[in-house]
Amino acid sequence: MDRMKELVELLNKAAESYYQKDSSIMSDFEYDKLYDELVALEKETGIVLGDSPTKKVGYTVLSSLKKVRHESRMLSLDKTKDVERLKSFLEDKEGILSYKMDGLTVVLTYNNGALVSAVTRGNGEIGEDITHNALCFKNIPFRIPFKGEMVVRGEAVISFKEFERINSLLEGEEQYKNPRNLCSGTVRQLDSSIAAKRNVCFIAFSLVSAEGNSLGDLKTDWLDYLDSMGFQTVIRRVVTGNTVEDAVKWFEDNIPQNEFATDGLVLTYNSISYSQLLGSTAKFPRDSIAFKWADEVAETVLRDVEWNTSRTGLINPIAIFDSVELEGTTVSRASLHNVSIVEQLKLGIGDRITVYKANMIIPQVAENLTESNTLVIPDKCPVCGEETEIVGSADGKVLKCTNPNCKAQRLRALVHFVSRDAMNIEGLSEATIEKFISRGYLDNYTDIFSLEKYRDDITQMDGFGKKSADNLLGSIEKAKKVALPNFIYALGINHVGLSNAKLLCKKCDYDIDRIISAKQEELEEIDGFGEIIASAVTRYFSYKDNVDLVKKAMEYLSIVEPEEGINKGSLDGISFVITGDVHIYKNRRELKEEIERLGGKVTGSVSSKTNYLINNDVNSASSKNKKAKELNIPIISEEAFVEMIK
Asked: pTM for the full model?
């Protein structure tokens, strides 16, 4: 099994290097040799691991997740923060102590060795069928050598490293708060290719049943059996009343090394027959109990709040305080996440605050004992000095830099500039743009049009060659002929999507000079613009640097005359609001772009001018749903939207 896992990792790294990075870490001969060895081992053991390169999976897109009733109710665990309670719980019995994984509980069912279903815990009685996604999890065995039915319970999780990678690719308001939220949203997607890209893992913590098994009465033996089948099982230790306290300390000491988030420990009796004999209460099973570490809280003084502009334009607040010792480390900084948290804590410099470590890892401000509420939210970006604005997001109010040419946002702005509905320059991926920035080829978007002078250097770069360089520069040359709305959209002006860019161009007769000099009152006359969008446009062109860049770009570009009916689309004049999780589209931004591409508008709040609210949970009690119902505005799902635009 160890050799199989080693081969899977080696072969996947080789494939990634060859297909995605245009480089080879091993010869074709060596790859084929290792691949054949893996095939032979899979044939010998009857086990095929979830991320094996021998496994071919076609991605599936569903219209909805099927609801499934569990054969037996899945209960929550009783909880304690007292180690003495764990000792008294065990008495003279032997137990298993393990990490309590902070993810989404999933039940897997195998039939004659094949994975046939994966169902979430749901409310404990009814879960959701996510089999199409489980088949794409990174480490679930796709096939095992077991005859009959076998049921395995575990936790779907996403690693801290993967969480950070995925969040770095998302816009600020789309970013996930923690790995658990990301995992929950991922495994419930209708498109299985999304789960495949996010490296979801499955950590087994219980073998529920194995038809006709002769594994004995100990849960440890059952877990060892799962190990032998290729499952990744939960980290555990066998304990008694005399050793459980030391074991708790051992788990605590090893938290910093954990790849996945945990939110405590689980103690269960090792004997299966004894566990079954105990039964359960109305709320909890009697054979298990959860242990939560009591948060170590320290009091300190807030000395400053740093505001850091990210590459998405979000300006994130960081609390700086007098150093304190927490969970064995010295801490002097903690993220405050957003403006809403700052306001809730009523912060002011010099306030006495308490801090702790969430999940014993991430420093957080727990409470403000002073509540002076004197902290000033900056009205200027700390990087470029331009104006900031407070906008709404899924997790509350956030502070944003309004300048898309801010140096901190340079990478994100350039990625947007070359995107499909903007300048549509193929070959300029985010990774390539990042390389060009680091080499000094790109400082702002106009530099893209003079990359020809670096042709020889680009040809010699890793991942490039003469053909790749020719294709990229040819794509740039092609992009110099562009419709004005696409160029305006490419600038990344706040609140100006492609549909609004078309409305703006039409209002100004497709004259860039008129757009630059337009007055706010004039733009407010555009149907659907209003004060916010009009102000964003005039503010953007009020900065000399922005105007200079636009005029420089015009020296390279040839503006294509608008086609007749350029402002017409299947959604022309229709206004939408999007809320909640999406399943068909990658994220809400992609759905928004689709609406705007078809001539529709997307706003952030429900009003009398809204035509449709898109929410997959049409019966949600959210404020937007309530507002839509009050105004008799239809609430539709993604599926209904897709049908609408057919």
From this structure: 0.59
